[in-house]
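note to self: dont lose this again. the chain is below, predicted strucutre after it. 885 aa total, dont forget to put it in the shared folder this time
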Amino acid sequence: MTTRNLDALFQPKSIALVGASNAPGSVGQVLSRNLLESGFAGPVLPVSLSARAIRSSIAYQSVADLPMAPDLAVVATPAHAVPRVVADLAERGCRAAIVISAGVEGEGRQAMLDASKPSLMRILGPNCLGFMSPRRGINASFAHLSPSPGGLALVSQSGAIAAAAIDWAHARGVGFSHLLTIGDAADIDFGDLLDYLALDHETHGILLYVESISDARKFMTAGRIASRTKPVVVVKAGRSAGGAKAAFTHSGALAGSDLVYEAAFRRAGMLRVGGLRELFDAVTTLGVGLRVYGDRLAILTNGGGAGVMAVDALEARNGRVAELSEDTLQRLAAAAPAHWSGTNPVDILGDAHAPLYGKALEILLEDRGADAVLVMNCPTAVEDSTFAADAVVETLKAKRYHRPVLSAWLGQTAVAEGRRRLAAAGVPAHETPDEAVRAFMHLVNHRKNQEALVRTPAGLPGEPDLEAARSVIAAARADGRLTLTDPEARALLRAYGVPVLESQEARTPEEAAAAAVEMKGPVALKILSPDISHKSELGGVALGLNGADEILSEAHTMLQRITKARPEARIEGFVVEPMVHRPQAQELLVGVAQDPLFGPIVMFGAGGISVEVIADRVVGLPPLDDVLARDMVSRTRISHLLQGYRDHGPADMEAITGVMTRLSQLAVGEPEIAELDINPLLADADGVIVLDARVRLRPEGAERARMAILPYPRNLRREVEIGGESVVVRAIRPQDGPAIAAMVEASSAEDVRLRFRSGFRTLPPGWPERLSQIDYDREMALVALDRDRKILGVSRLAGDPQGETAEFALMVRTDQQHKGLGRLLLNAILEYAAAKGLREVWGDVARENAPMLATAKNLGFVKTPSDDFTRVKIVRTLEPDQVPA
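---
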C-alpha cells in the first residue's frame, strides 16, 4: 500500500499540460480550457510542439523548456510518445502524471512504467478521463462539466461513468472533494487512492465504480482502512461466472463469480449498491451520520397503501417490521383517530393533521422495539404536506433520539417543499416507500459490514491434526491423483474436527455385504473410484439397503452399471455406511474453493441433489469466526428453515457455524486444496454430520492466488520480562485502536512530536483505526502490553510495493522508557523483517532524538545525513538468526 508522491497529484503547486492544443474539439483543447479556467492558484504550463500560446498562456515546445519542474503533469500525446514524455518529466523532477492517452499497451506501457520508476513518479491512467479537485480549482480532465466542491470523492474505472456521475450530481447539487478516473491503472490503483482518501479531511464519503481489481489484498487492506473512517459505497459492474464450466464442485463453480466480489466488499466494510442513483442516495444517507443497531423498522403513514408498499419493500430486502410494545400501542390509540390501523405500519389516516404526526413520531421513537422510524406522507386537501414535515422536524429538534428517522413524501408538486425542509433538517427525504426502505437497509447492511471488517479471527479452540491431514494429501499426490477418494475426504475433514459419518471400505461385493451385516441396519452403498466425483449421476449410490443378499446383488449391479457408463474409470471397491434417519434435518452445502483473485473462499447454502436449481448460497472470505459464519447463514433463504418451523425444531446453529469456521481453517491451512464440497451436511437440533464430501487438489505447480485477508499471526506472541515485570509482545489487533490512542495521550508532548512530527496531543479522528488495522502482509505492528492490557510501546514496519524495503517506526510510552523496551520492540520487528526476506529496513529519526539514534546504532543501523532528519538504514543481508539481539 503506498501513497508516496500522491500529494503531487492531489495538492500540486504547478501543473504542466503536455499535448496542449488550440484545435477546436480536440482533447488537448478541452484539457487546456478546463485547466486554465477552473481557478487553479498555481501556474499551468502548456507544452505544445506547434502552438506558441494556448488560450493566451505561453506554450513551451518541450518539457526541457519549462521554467520550473511541475509537481503534476497531464499527458495527452499520441500513445507512442508517452514513454519518452514520462522519461523527460521524471528527469525534470515531476512527481506525478495523469496519462490521458489511450493505447499505451504492451511494451509501451512497460516502457512508461520503467521511465517513471527511478524517480518514483506516480502515474494515473493511462486511458483515463483525468482528475478533478474542485476545492483547489483543478480540472485536469476532458469532462464536459466542472463539478461543485463538496465532501464526496469519486474513483471510477470508467471515464464514461464518471462523466455521467458528474452530470447527474450537477443537476442535484451534489459536490465533490475529488474525482479520479484510473483507466488502465498501470500504477495508481483503487488501493492507493483508498489509502490516501481515508485520511483526507476534505473527503467525507467515498464512491467507487469498479469493473475489476488487480490486487485483491491491497484493495482489501486499503478498503478496510477507509471504511473505518468514512462511508465507502461501491458499484460493481459485470457479474461473471467464468469458473463455472471447469468446476469440479459446486463451490468451485463460484470462483470468479460476482458473489466473491460481494463477499469482499462486505468484509471490507463497504456498501455495495446497484447503480449511480443508489450510489449517491446511499452515501447521502450514511453521510449525515445516521446509525442503526438492528433491522426493525417502525412505519408511520397517513396512507394505508403506502404502508403496505413499505412493508413489501422491507421484507423483500430481509428487513423486519418492528413489533410495537403494548404501551406504545395504547399511547398511539389515545392520540390517533378511532379507526387507525392499530398496529405497525401505524396508519393515522388521510385526514391526519400535522400535530398528530409529531405526537405519533415521538411515541414511536421511544419504543425500544424499533431500530428506526420511517415517516411517510401522501398529499391530501385536508392538511398541507409541508406542515406535516415541519411537525417531524420540530419533534426531532425538541429532544435527542438515538433512533434514526427517514422520510418518504409521496408525490411531486404538493410535497416538494416538505421534502426540502426535511432534507435541510438532516432527515433523508425520499419520493417513494421503496427508496426510503432501501435507504434504511443501506444503514442496516453498512452496520453489519462495519462489524465484519473489524473482526480478525484468531483461530478455533484446539488445533487441527495437521500431520493426519497432510498425510492424506501426500498419499493422493504419491498416487498421481488430484481427486481424493471418499474415505480420504472423510479423513481430511476429521483431521480438522468436522463431524463425519463413519464408513467402511470394501474391495469386493462380498466384503461390502459383510460390512453391511456388521452395521446391523439399513446401509448406503457407494462406488469407490478416484475417477468419479458425481457418483449419484452414474448410479454409483444406492440407499436403504438391508441384509447381505440385497447388498451383494446391488454391488454387482452397480459394478456393471459403472463399467458400462465409464469403462475407463478405476474401480477400487465400495464404501458402506449406515443410513442416517434424521427426519427433521435440513440438507446443507458447505464448501471451499480457490478464487483466482481473492484466494480461498468458503461457501454455504442449501444442499441436496437440487442444489443447482435452488441456487441458495453465499460466499465468505476466510479467516472466519462464528459471528462472520452466522452472518453468512443469515443471508440465505434456508436460514429461515434452520430457525425452526411447525414441528421442526431449530437447528444447532453453533454446530453449523463450527463446520464453516473449521473449513475456513482448512482453506487457510491446506493450500493444496483446490475445491471441496460437503453435500449434504445434515443439520438439526442434535447437531450436524457430513454424509458425503468431494475434494480436489491443485495441480502440481499451479499458481495459487494469495489470501485477500491474512489471518491474525498468533505465532508472533511472546512473553518477556522487562524491568522485573511480565510483558506480552504480540501483533496489533484492530480492536487496539483505543489503547493506541490512550498510549499517545499518556506520553509527553515531545515524545509525540518526535514520533509523529506533529504538534497534536491526541491522535486525530481516524488515526487510531489506521494505526491498528493493518493487513499483516506489507505492514506489521508489534505492541507490548502490561498485565492490565495497556499498551506500553509499539514497533511498526511498512513495506514498499516491491517487498524489498520497509520503513520502521517506534514509540514507547514516556513513563516506560529507559527499561530496554524500545530495544526489545525494535529488535523484534527486525527479526520479523529478516524472516520475511526484506533487503532493507530504514527509518527517519529527528536529529535530537539521541536515545533512538543510539538504539539504532547498537542494532546495526548506519546514518545517512539529510537536510532535516537523519535517515537511519539497515541493509538486511543477514540470516534471521543473525539479526542483532
